[in-house]
Amino acid sequence: MSAVLTETPGPGAGHAPRRRLPRGLAWLVLTQHRTLTYLYLAVLVLGPLWILYQHHRMAGQIDAGISGADARMQLAGNSGFDQLAAGLTSLPVLIAVFAAAPLLAGDREHGTVQLVTTQSVTRGRWVAAKVLWCLGLTGVAGIVLSVLFTWSWRSHREYVMTSWLDGQIFDNTGPVFPALCLFLAAAGMTVGLLVKRQLAAMGITFVFCFAVQIVWAEVRDRFAATRTVSFPIDSGEPAVLDNAYEVDRWIGTADGKLFGWGHCAEPTEAASDACIKQNGIVNDVVEYLGYDQMGALQWTGAGILLAGAALLTAFTVWRVARTPL
Amino acid sequence: MGIEGKRVSDTELPGGPPGAWALEARGLGKRYRRGWALRDCSFRLPAGRICGLVGPNGAGKTTLLKLAAQQATATEGRLATFGVPAADSAALPRFAYLGQDKPLFKRFTVAETLRMGRELNPRWDGAEAERIVRAGDIPLDARIGTLSGGQHTRVAFALAFGKRPELLLLDEPMADLDPVARDEMSGLLMAEATERGTTVLMSSHVLTDLEDMCDHLLVVARGRLRLAGDVDTLVPAHTLVTGLAEDGRAPAALDAHTVIETRVQGRQFHALVRPAGELSDDWETAEPSMEEVLLAHLRAPDAPALLTGASDPDAEGNSAA
After folding, report:
1. Does residue B59 sit in the same domain as residue B146?
2. Nearest-CA neighbor of B3 among B210, B180, B239?
3. Does any domain span residue B53?
4. With an 8 Å Cβ cutoff, are B99 and A120 in contact?
5. Is the ipTM of this complex over 0.95?
6. Which of A70, A106, B69, B117 is the right S-S partner for B97, CB 3.0 to 4.6 Å?
7. Of the candidates B180, B206, B229, which is a domain's last residue?
8. Same domain assignment for residues B141 and B202
9. B123 and B248, same structural domain?
10. How many angstroms separate the CA atoms of B60 and B265, rounded?
């Protein structure tokens, strides 16, 4: 490192020193968080490799001559795919807890916020550099992994038993995965700003992520209007329900009156038939979200998450720039 | 280090240009949730002084330093650094601040710490910072976390001086050092400050350190300013008086003067006063040391405030430019 220092000439030297990139705050943030930067880079290299390996493995199983229902049965218990999906699901939480939450809490706890903000850079520039580092790497990792996983899943979608609206697929594909990564990271940074202790910030962030996952699972199917289809009882499901996510199911009369699915669930078939006949029930009615609605659902959900991330980030930057920590 | 370290004579700068005051406070106050830490604080610190900031624990010393170092925002009043509002980003390159803990990145090497100084300060003097570190035999590739207390402080000083500050704000800089390191750091501080003409505002509980190093004083107690001015005018403004106690009490004639502190021992009283005129010939008088003046004010925080010469921004002829 002494070579670095000798680059700086004494006062009055005739030429400007040649400076290596990165410089200024970028250098400080990368040096301070070099371990985490390497971990992000590892995720950016190993994550795609894992997805490609799993994709290749699945393609091999499919090409081995298994087809149709057999293939579905064979691949239903595909632990490799499940592990990959679980790994992706946990990544936003890991980023929020181990990278974002300590980002400001660490500097506050160790007093280094005072060290940096009494150099010749403003608090606003400092926090902007830190936030940019965290959200930049998080966003890039989220986009790269999501693009690859989306491609892999779409290629083998008919062999994956998990519904597209299940968190394993919905949250790890399209715009939702990077948006979720960014939202939880922004939340972690904000918690780290408000809670001075690093460990406490990490714990609270973990609990927050857990709560978000629960709420998200409840609301992710509400970002688009459901559709309804009626078809004659015992005629078999229409093609429109292929790959659709069933929200609810009724039985109904010709004039549109609906009864609960179990309305005519009687102990004997004769009793059930009598009930159906007595109530004039002729149709099965299914409320569903079509696979073609997945894009709308994902972009709406991602938009909400990104708006939340933007609000939290703006608050964090504003708060640090405005008053000393 | 002794009196030869003092560079500035009792030169007053009434009504000087804004840059003449390293710090200028008017009605400065800071309130935390628990109450006022500093209130109604008005003073001027002329540029070039080495100023001791003295007061009991919780008196407001750290708050004043933090306000000057942009680590806290004032609740009321104004504070300017060389004529620039202290909270302005333009003030940032002009001061360096060392808090009580002197925080550094523990995982950085010494070289990386100095590089941080270069990356974040446009006026960085790398040669100077490296010279201070090398003078302490600290390897540049050593991790900050492995350094001794003295070495840690030296690196923190190197970072502060490398910034080429015009004002150096130090919050009990020697508090955690052993006597050898303390002596070494005092020498370093005086040498660097003298060479560059840096204004130093330094809080300390070690009065002998202050007596050796400082030519200017700010005394705060209970969040209010008690004394401000050059040592050469503040100390002579006080007199130690000894005489016969009347009925076990200091004589009533003493009340004609500003009495800072009185003590009665047996038949004698001892008092530190600011004479308002001739003192009685019945009493013995002596000029106190700086330590005696400071101790008396620390023991009597309610004593009337005294701002001498240019330190008082409200005094006649001292109106701000």
Report:
1. yes
2. B210
3. yes
4. no
5. no
6. B69
7. B229
8. yes
9. no
10. 33
**pLDDT (0 to 100) of residue A9:** 42
Task: Sort out which chain A residues have CB atoms less than 8 A from B115's CB and list them.
Answer: 1, 4-5, 27
The pLDDT tens digits for A147-182 are: 999 999 988 888 887 888 888 899 999 999 999 999
Residue B88, in any domain of the structure: yes
CATH of the domain at B64: 3.40.50.300
- Among A7, A119, A323, which would you mutate to test the B interface (most chain B Cβ atoms within 10 Å of its Cβ)? A119
Nearest CA in chain A to B161: A119
> Taking CA atoms, what residue in B is nearest to A109?
B103
Q: How many CB pairs under 8 A join A and B?
A: 92
What pTM was computed for the model?
0.85
Q: Which of B97, B103, B120 sits opposite A24 (nearest CB)?
A: B120
For B111, how many CA atoms within 13 A lie in the half-sphere containing its CB? Answer: 12
- The 3-state DSSP class for residue A213 equals helix
B243: nearest Cα among B265, B222, B219, B224 = B265
Burial class, B274, CB count within 10 angstroms (exposed 0-12 / middle 13-18 / buried 19+) = middle
- Number of compact structural domains in chain B: 2
Count of beta carbons in the 10 Å neighbourhood of residue A320: 22
Q: Which two tokens stand for residue B243?
A: 């005489």
**pLDDT tens digit at each of 325 positions of chain A:** 333 444 444 444 444 556 667 889 999 999 999 999 999 999 999 999 999 999 998 888 877 756 555 555 555 556 788 899 999 999 999 999 999 999 999 999 999 999 999 999 999 999 999 999 999 999 999 999 999 999 999 888 888 878 888 888 999 999 999 999 999 999 999 999 999 899 999 999 999 999 999 999 999 888 888 898 888 887 888 888 888 888 888 988 888 888 888 888 888 888 888 888 888 888 889 999 888 889 999 999 999 999 999 999 999 999 999 988 8
Q: Are residues B189 and B261 in the same domain?
A: no
Residue in A24, A110, A123 nearest the CB of B103: A110
Hey, of B88, B120, B152, B164, which one would you mutate to test binding to chain A, going by the most A CBs within 10 A of its CB?
B120
Domain membership of residue B316 (yes or no) is no
Which residues 81-120 on chain A approach chain B with CB closer than 8 angstroms? Answer: 110-112, 114-120
Handedness of CA B9, B13, B16, B19 (dihedral sign): positive
B123 and B269 in a single domain? The answer is: no
Q: Which domain holds residue B197?
A: 21-229
Q: Are residues B245 and B260 in the same domain?
A: yes
DSSP helix/strand/coil, B251: coil
End-to-end CA distance of chain B: 36
Beta strands B239-244 and B84-85, pairing class:
unpaired
B36 and B175: one domain? Answer: yes
Write out the H or E segment, with its range, that includes residue B169.
Answer: strand B167-171
Do B208 and B241 reside in the same domain of the chain? no
Rounded distance between C-alpha atoms, residue B63 and residue B82, angstroms: 19
* Residue A56 phi, psi (nearest 5): -65, -40
Residue ending a domain, choose from B229, B250, B267: B229
Distance from CA of A221 to the nearest CA of B (A): 46
